[in-house]
């Protein structure tokens, strides 16, 4: 009997009609394996995963495969996005056994969950042979299987250990990390490494903050070059905005077409701050279009942001997105069609499968003449109408707490910068920007309210929800960190004290339930379900590690409240990551980003005013804020807002108070004076 029909996970629901007797992850499944004395298949993936779909079509939808699995195994299907703790433990095992990881992940385990064989995608013939071999080994060589499992668990436990060396995350160490990134940088195409190439969003955030602190033009150029290369590449959706998960090549041309919420949230922050620091029109456009993508394509009205758009459309990867020259001419006419083909590098040979091309910008348009920009925007609009009429990729519409936290923080920062630059945009662009900021603001507030109303259950976070119904999976450390940071962002943008209160409650749970020895943190709570190991990964990968995320929230919360114990906890957590940053800077980007905020102060800016909207002091603060600064504006002594307490207006005029490390400069009423204070060093 397949037991997935009642799942909240779209990934599990994709498998509810398989001829496999799937179980969701639960103790009952392992009890059934013990009762039958059979091994367990743990199949881990996610809804937008292309190769997960391939293995499903080849094997899990096949009657022969299903019969073999049902006869000799208990089969458990896991959504890695819903259960990152389960995924982390078995991914560590997979990497220990094979030297690599990925999804779909296929794990063979004993009835107590001990893994003894791990792999990723298996073609049907290979998978059949594997099932037959394991069935025989379980029957005839049980002792060898159990010894193998014990060795794997020992390796997993060592890899997930908390404790070990720590050292302060100093300016010298962060300078060395920036130097290491520069040495590993792809000078030709931007980014780091070869194919496949992933957007290095957290490293770019770090380099932007490092540039602010040190004035390094090298850091700024690395960010600008990478951002331009990605924005002009096929990894960036040239019609609707948003970024795909990665490019299959080393030069950003052909994407793996899935679009993830977390990538787009983090990239929105990168382009927003590049725009803030430089005024770059390309960065402004991409930030605007990424915010619009989040609001239009991933926001669920009345809820939060969906997790992802699928890589496939009707089983074909990229079908929605690719074009031929003939299709462009059919839509746009001969003249505009050929012009668009040249602009977007659409050729007869094609850059993708079957002679089709992924759109990429082969020409610079942001600094082009006004008539060129108008023609380009007209072409984009007409192509998008036709593309929207094509079959569309499926959307994984579950709401993940941590990723929604990342999106809320990103949109809050985008809103603040957009307000500061409103007067600099040309007329048509200003109107578009205003529309995007209004829609994105509504989506941001919707998501924050949804997290507070639905995901907070008895003072604890739940990981996911869908259709307004919260799932059973407990929140992990990254959920607490990312959501607490988002609630701090909501406090700053709304001036409402309740968001700060909620952030503090989450951080208190993190400190009580997740803290490990010597300043470290586990990824699961001390009262969470026991797995074969308790995960505690300190490295930043596709998303910030739980440790980096909670450190970020602790730093912001301490700055907003003046409660130094939270800052001390953040510094202790960062000290456990510092030895990794010294050796492997690419895997500590968010931790280094937080480290720059700590070195900066961070600054605390309070603007007392009866009307924060459009106030020059507020706009100046957002435009010139040092790394990680917190900024709050509102009436003096506004309830629930510690930064406004005891800070009156001077001579009845709006007044700014800029402090660093809880030591304040003189209050100022002139925006120029505030900028001087914020940029003096």
Explain this structure.
- There is one protein chain.
- With 681 residues, the chain is α+β, with helices and mostly antiparallel strands.
- It contains 24 helices and 20 strands.
- Helix 5 (84-98) crosses helix 7 (142-159).
Tally of individual helices: 24
- Give the beta-strand count: 20
Largest beta-sheet details: 5 strands, mixed
Structural class: alpha+beta
Q: What is the helix fraction of residues, given as a range?
A: 40-55%
- Uncertain runs: none
Radius of gyration: 25 Å
Strand order of the largest sheet: 1-3-2-4-5
Helix and strand topology:
Layout: H1 10-13, E1 22-24, H2 27-36, E2 40-45, H3 50-60, H4 63-72, E3 74-79, H5 84-98, E4 105-109, E5 115-119, H6 124-140, H7 142-159, H8 171-184, H9 201-214, H10 217-232, E6 246-247, E7 255-256, E8 259-260, H11 261-278, H12 281-298, E9 306-309, E10 312-313, E11 316-317, H13 325-332, H14 334-343, H15 370-388, E12 395-400, H16 401-420, H17 427-455, E13 456-457, E14 460-461, E15 464-466, E16 469-470, H18 477-494, H19 497-513, H20 546-561, H21 564-583, H22 589-600, E17 603-608, H23 616-624, E18 630-634, E19 655-660, E20 663-664, H24 671-679
Parallel strand pairs: 1-3, 2-3, 17-18
Antiparallel strand pairs: 2-4, 4-5, 6-7, 8-9, 9-12, 10-11, 12-15, 13-14, 15-16, 17-19, 19-20
In short:
It is built from 24 helices and 20 strands.
Key traits:
20 strands, five-stranded antiparallel beta sheet
């Amino acid at each position: 009997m397949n037991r997935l029909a009642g799942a909240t996970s779209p990934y599990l629901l994709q498998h509810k009609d398989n001829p496999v007797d799937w179980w969701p992850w639960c103790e009952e499944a392992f009890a059934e394996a013990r009762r039958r004395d059979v091994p367990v298949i743990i199949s881990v993936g996610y809804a937008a995963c292309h190769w997960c779909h391939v293995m499903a079509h080849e094997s899990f939808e096949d009657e022969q495969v299903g019969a073999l699995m049902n006869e000799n195994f208990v089969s458990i299907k896991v959504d890695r996005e819903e259960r990152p703790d389960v995924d982390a433990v078995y991914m560590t095992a997979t990497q220990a056994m094979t030297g690599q990881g990925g999804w779909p992940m296929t794990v063979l385990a004993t009835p107590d969950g001990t893994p003894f064989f791990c792999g990723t995608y298996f073609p049907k013939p290979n998978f059949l042979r594997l099932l037959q071999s394991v069935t025989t080994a379980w029957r005839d060589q049980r002792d060898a299987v159990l010894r193998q499992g014990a060795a794997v668990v020992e390796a997993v436990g060592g890899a997930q250990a908390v404790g070990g060396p720590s050292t302060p995350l100093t300016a010298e160490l962060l300078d060395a990390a920036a130097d290491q990134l520069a040495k590993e940088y792809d000078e030709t195409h931007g980014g780091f490494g070869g194919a496949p190439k992933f957007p290095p969003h957290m490293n770019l955030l770090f380099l932007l903050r490092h540039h602010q602190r040190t004035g390094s033009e090298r850091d700024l150029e690395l960010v600008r070059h990478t951002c331009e290369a990605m924005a002009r590449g096929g990894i960036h959706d040239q019609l609707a905005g948003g970024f795909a998960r990665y490019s299959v090549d080393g030069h950003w041309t052909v994407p793996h077409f899935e679009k993830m919420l977390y990538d787009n949230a983090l990239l929105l922050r990168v382009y927003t701050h590049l725009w803030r620091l430089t005024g770059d029109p390309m960065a402004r456009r991409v930030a605007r279009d990424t915010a619009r993508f989040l609001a239009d394509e991933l926001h669920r009205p009345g809820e939060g942001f969906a997790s992802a758009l699928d890589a496939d459309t009707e089983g074909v990867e990229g079908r929605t997105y690719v074009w031929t020259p003939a299709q462009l001419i059919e839509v746009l006419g001969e003249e505009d069609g050929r012009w668009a083909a040249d602009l977007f590098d659409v050729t007869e040979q094609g850059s993708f499968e079957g002679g089709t091309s992924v759109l990429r910008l082969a020409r610079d348009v942001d600094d082009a003449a006004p008539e060129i920009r108008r023609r380009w925007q007209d072409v984009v609009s007409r192509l998008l109408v036709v593309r929207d009429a094509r079959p569309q990729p499926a959307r994984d519409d579950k709401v993940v707490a941590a990723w929604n936290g990342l999106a809320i923080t990103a949109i809050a920062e985008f809103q603040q910068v957009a307000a500061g630059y409103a007067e600099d945009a040309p007329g048509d662009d200003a109107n578009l920007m205003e529309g995007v900021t209004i829609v994105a603001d509504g989506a941001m507030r919707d998501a924050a309210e949804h997290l507070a109303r639905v995901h907070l259950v008895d003072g604890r976070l739940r990981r996911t929800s869908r259709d307004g119904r919260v799932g059973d999976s407990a929140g992990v450390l990254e959920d607490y960190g990312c959501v607490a940071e988002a609630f701090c962002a909501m406090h700053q943008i709304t001036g409402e004290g309740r968001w700060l209160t909620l952030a503090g409650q989450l951080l208190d749970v993190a400190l009580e339930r997740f803290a490990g020895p010597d300043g470290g943190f586990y990824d699961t709570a001390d009262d969470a379900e026991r797995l074969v190991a308790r995960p505690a990964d300190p490295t930043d990968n596709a998303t910030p590690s739980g440790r980096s995320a909670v450190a970020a929230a602790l730093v912001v919360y301490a700055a907003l409240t003046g409660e130094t114990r939270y800052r001390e906890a953040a510094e202790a957590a960062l000290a456990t990551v510092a030895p990794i940053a010294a050796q492997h800077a690419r895997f500590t980007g968010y931790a280094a980003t937080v480290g720059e905020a700590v070195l900066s102060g961070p600054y605390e800016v309070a603007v007392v005013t009866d009307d924060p909207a459009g106030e020059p002091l507020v706009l100046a603060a957002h435009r010139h804020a040092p790394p990680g600064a917190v900024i709050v504006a509102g009436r003096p002594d506004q309830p629930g807002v510690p930064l406004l307490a005891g800070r009156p207006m001077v001579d009845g005029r709006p007044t700014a108070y800029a402090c660093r490390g809880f030591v304040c400069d003189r209050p100022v009423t002139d925006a120029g004076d505030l900028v001087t204070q914020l940029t003096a060093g």
